[in-house]
């Protein structure tokens, strides 16, 4: 059920079409949703996330970008021990192709049902990888954008763990970036996986100390460099696509 949460009831066309509630808690109690998606501006996003968590929504997807890092540190600390999972912020959302589920801003028409899972820090590169796969006749099981901010709710390891358990997924595409050590953490987990992973890291020509697009895409030490991430993933057994343009063909060769 679609539910709207408005501060008042003004008799708008939206309110005539769907139930309108005075609070998130009221909406959750009445409709028992399993996911919430947030498009609110950055200054209000942290409180909006907490409101969904307090109401007990199992999955909260935050599309909003530009949220201050300190605010997200506080949100993530607040969520410790809670039952809700946060995807994002600054992410495109998640899609299970074939009309089964689409919660986000990704173009649904480029996806095709299949058995390759996709997880990425970049929304745009998620679409690029999916388009390559679909053009080659390779479908996707689920595609997840975890977001490009330094502090977010769901990591590569979280999604890889789910893909490893998912019977509909037989191979995985992982798209990382410069900045942080999330890809090295993923590499440690990939060592234990039975399913093959194709990985690519963008930002290989980025200069140290300069942020490249995403707030988290900044080289702040040797471990944040693309070369270090690629080396860790290759050593863990991942198949490396040297550039994003090669993802589709590398996956095709792997599946063959």
Question: Helix and strand layout, with pairings?
Answer:
Layout: E1 4-5, H1 13-17, E2 20-21, H2 24-31, E3 35-38, H3 45-55, E4 59-62, H4 69-79, E5 85-87, E6 93-96, E7 101-104, E8 113-120, H5 123-135, E9 140-145, H6 156-165, E10 171-177, H7 182-190, E11 197-202, H8 226-235, E12 239-240, H9 247-255
Parallel strand pairs: 1-2, 3-4, 4-5, 8-9, 8-10, 10-11, 11-12
Antiparallel strand pairs: 6-7, 6-9
Helix pairs in contact: 2-3, 3-4, 5-9, 6-7, 7-8
How would you summarize what this structure contains?
The protein has 9 helices and 12 strands. With 256 residues, it is an alpha/beta fold.
Give an overview of the whole structure.
Strand 1 (4-5), helix 1 (13-17) and strand 2 form a beta-alpha-beta unit. Helix 2 (24-31) runs parallel beside helix 3. The strands form three sheets. The chain has a seven-stranded mixed β-sheet with strand order 7-6-9-8-10-11-12, with helices on both faces. A three-stranded parallel β-sheet has the order 3-4-5, covered by helices on one side. It contains nine helices and twelve strands. It starts with a strand and ends with a helix. It is globular, with a radius of gyration of 19 Å. With 256 residues, it is of the alpha/beta class. It has two domains: 4-87, Rossmann fold, CATH 3.40.50.720; 93-255, 3-Layer(aba) Sandwich (Rossmann fold), CATH 3.40.50.261.
